[in-house]
Design a protein that fits this description.
Strand order of the largest sheet: 3-4-2-1-7-11-12-10
Largest sheet: 8 strands, mixed
CATH architecture of the largest domain: 3-Layer(aba) Sandwich
Bound molecules: aspartic acid
Number of helices: 14
CATH superfamily of the largest domain: Acetylglutamate kinase-like
Shape: globular
CATH topology of the largest domain: Carbamate kinase
């Protein structure tokens, strides 16, 4: 059995529905379908999820919500009308949308989750009806009935292990199973969503639960590319890569596939195939377990992310001082801050954070407390920090990669704050100024790909 997930850009209007139905019916192994909410139809259009967020915000502010409700309903109506779907289906959709504003929720976070989740819920419900109308037997897999259980973090939930056993009950289902992506139910019965883009996560969970042979993730690009295609024109596509290469690259900004969606597939050892809904004949990118994988290139991809900041600490004889790092981590623990990386020298330590975790007041408080507790000789908060990742299973066998990375950067006066090699066997991490990050990625791509992988 194959589990197939379609993103919002593949489900934005009736023409897209026709296209995905062609894809579903062209392979009888495609038995379980996971859908996002309708995405954007044209430049400047608004995703249904964002309309639902607006609806939730207006409800909380006790504003008039009639216009946004009508806009959301119209998105489904456009698709239903094209397929001449029974009025009763649209009536139910309209009732669900109108009813949201008067429903009660545990708190505003759950309210937001409850609103957002309706986008996928109603799209799965509509697709089930479209398929049935076309004489393709299909069932709507309501996450509540299926037992799709998640932790009680309203808008950033994670799956509970029981869900896998619950899904396994449907392995022999003969009808097409249509799952709404993005959300599940807490054990208390509240709706909780994954983080944004989380239908990818649902797809991976369903694939693991149903023990699929492959998880096909249909989106709007032909493949995953070796570099962000917004940065480099016509970059090389990646035909095959490992889970951990994908994990490293999505951490640093490859956004085609949600980074949290990799774990369920790894646990189930299910290959992921990222493909284009608009070019379904293309093979896309396969993401596979590392065993039996033979890299053909040293570097698979280059990515960068500018979401970081760093705290630099210098203290003479830091290497001899017992408990220094412990005390530092205790301060971070107190402020509930996790760190991303911690490269260290003899008398120096740099801690790299995701900048989103700290507001300016926290930065000041943390720095003051570090000064008062640890008395460093020097302390510097670096707000301008980007991370570049050069990733490839082949790096393990490539003695000259660091040299090949540094040369093009130094030739172009790009200053490196940090190089981290060895912590991960398959990735080399570089710290730069945010303003240098794009240029560095382009240079590295040029060096490793346009010159056909000169490393040896
Ligand atoms: N519709 C949700 C979002 O826009 C989830 C998803 O599409 O995967 O974030």
């Amino acid at each position: 059995m194959k589990v197939v997930k379609f993103g919002g850009s593949s489900l934005a209007n009736a023409a897209h529905f026709e296209q995905i139905i062609k894809i579903i019916t062209s392979d009888e192994e495609r038995r379980a379908i996971v859908v996002s909410a309708p995405g954007t139809r044209f430049k400047g259009d608004i995703k249904v999820t964002d309309l639902l967020i607006k609806y939730a915000e207006q409800t909380l502010a006790q504003e008039d919500t009639a216009a946004v409700e009508a806009e959301i309903i119209a998105r489904y109506q456009e698709i239903a009308a094209y397929f001449s779907i029974a009025d009763s289906v649209m009536e139910k959709i309209a009732t669900v949308i109108h009813g949201l504003k008067s429903k009660s929720f545990e708190n505003n976070d759950y309210l937001m989750a409850g609103f957002k989740a309706r986008g996928e819920y109603l799209n799965a419900y509509l697709l089930t009806n479209v398929l049935t109308q076309l004489n393709l037997p299909a069932i709507f897999m309501d996450p509540k009935e299926v037992g799709f259980l998640v932790s009680d973090v309203a808008q950033d939930a994670s799956v509970l292990p029981k869900t896998y056993a619950n899904l396994a009950n449907y392995q022999n289902e003969t009808k097409l199973m249509i799952f709404p992506g993005f959300f599940g139910f807490t054990e208390k019965g509240e709706i909780a969503t994954f983080s944004r883009g989380g239908s990818d996560i649902t797809g991976s969970i369903v694939a693991r639960g149903l023990k699929a042979s492959v998880y096909e993730n249909f989106t709007d690009v032909d493949a995953i590319y070796s570099v962000d295609p917004h940065m480099v024109k016509n970059p090389q596509s990646i035909k095959i890569m490992t889970y951990r290469e994908m994990r490293e690259l999505s951490y640093a900004g490859f956004s085609v596939f949600h980074d949290e969606a990799i774990l369920p597939a790894i646990e189930g050892q299910i290959p992921i195939n990222v493909r284009n809904t608009n070019h379904p004949d293309l093979p896309g990118t396969m993401i596979v377990p590392e065993r039996d994988f033979h890299p053909t290139k040293f570097v698979t991809g280059v990515a960068s992310s500018k979401r970081f900041a760093a705290l630099y600490i210098h203290r003479y004889l830091l290497n001899k001082e017992v408990g220094f790092t412990l005390k530092l981590l205790q301060i971070l623990y107190k402020y509930n801050i996790s760190y991303e990386h911690m490269p260290s020298g003899i008398d120096d330590l740099t801690i790299i954070f995701d900048r989103k975790q700290l507001n300016d007041t926290m930065v000041k408080e943390v720095c003051d407390e570090v000064n008062d507790t640890l008395h460093p000789d020097q302390l510097e908060w670096i707000d301008d920090y980007a991370i570049i990742m050069v990733v490839g299973e082949g790096l393990q066998k490539s003695p000259h990669t660091v040299e090949n990375i540094i040369r093009p950067l130094s030739d172009n006066e790009i200053e490196l704050h940090m190089i981290n090699q060895g912590a991960s066997k398959i990735a080399i991490m570089l710290g730069t100024k945010q303003s240098d990050a794009d240029a560095a990625v382009k240079l590295l791509y040029q060096h490793f790909f346009a010159n056909n992988q000169i490393d040896s």
